[in-house]
């Protein structure tokens, strides 16, 4: 049985605009990256690995959503690849420094997408993520 929070989440995703979905993906990646930092600090390496893998999966989803017809997509692809590299490095070395850098980049990107959402650009075909 689905609890009310899960029902709300499903509804939020189903009714979100493409830009809002991108913001939700950033929110999730940031949440899992921050969670992994806490887990590494607590020496809960198995849990940190799971959290980092979830953050990586979300970044892969962001990559899959790139609109390749937009030139800016190539820049985002390079940045996403770099973020994946940092997450893998942090996971392998159990080092929070690369993960904190990822969190900073994702936070900046999320804020940019929030501004796009506020401007009502969800229907703008020139956004790099669909």
Question: Layout of SSEs?
Answer:
Elements: H1 4-15, H2 18-41, H3 45-64, H4 72-93, H5 96-118
Helix pairs in contact: 2-3, 2-5, 3-4, 4-5
Q: CATH superfamily, called what?
A: Flagellar protein FliS
Q: Report Rg.
A: 15 Å
- Please state the structural category: mainly alpha
Distance between the termini: 32 Å
Shape: globular
User: Helix proportion of residues, in percent?
Assistant: over 70%
CATH class: Mainly Alpha
Count the E strands.
Answer: 0
Describe the structure.
The chain is mostly helical. It has a single domain, classed as Flagellar protein FliS (Four Helix Bundle (Hemerythrin (Met), subunit A)), CATH 1.20.120.340. Helix content is 78%, strand content 0%. It has five helices and no strands. Helix 2 packs antiparallel against helix 5. The longest helix has 24 residues. The radius of gyration is 15 Å and the shape is globular. 24% of the residues are buried. The model has no long low-confidence stretch (mean pLDDT 89).
Task: Give me a quick take on this structure.
The chain has about 130 residues and is mainly α.
Considering the chains and any ligands shown, give keywords for the structure:
Four Helix Bundle (Hemerythrin (Met), subunit A), 78% helix, 130 residues, mainly alpha, 5 helices
């Amino acid at each position: 049985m689905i609890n009310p929070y899960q029902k709300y989440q499903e509804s939020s995703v189903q009714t979100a605009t493409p830009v809002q979905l991108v913001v939700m993906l950033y929110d999730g990646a940031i949440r899992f990256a921050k969670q992994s930092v806490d887990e590494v600090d607590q020496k809960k390496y198995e849990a940190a690995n799971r959290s980092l893998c979830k953050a990586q999966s979300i970044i892969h989803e962001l990559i899959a959503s790139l609109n390749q017809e937009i030139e800016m997509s190539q820049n985002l692809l390079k940045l996403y690849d770099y973020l994946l590299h940092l997450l893998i490095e942090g996971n392998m070395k159990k080092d929070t420094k690369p993960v904190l850098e990822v969190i900073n980049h994702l936070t900046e990107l999320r804020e940019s997408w929030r501004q796009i959402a506020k401007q009502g650009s969800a229907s703008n075909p020139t956004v790099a993520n669909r």
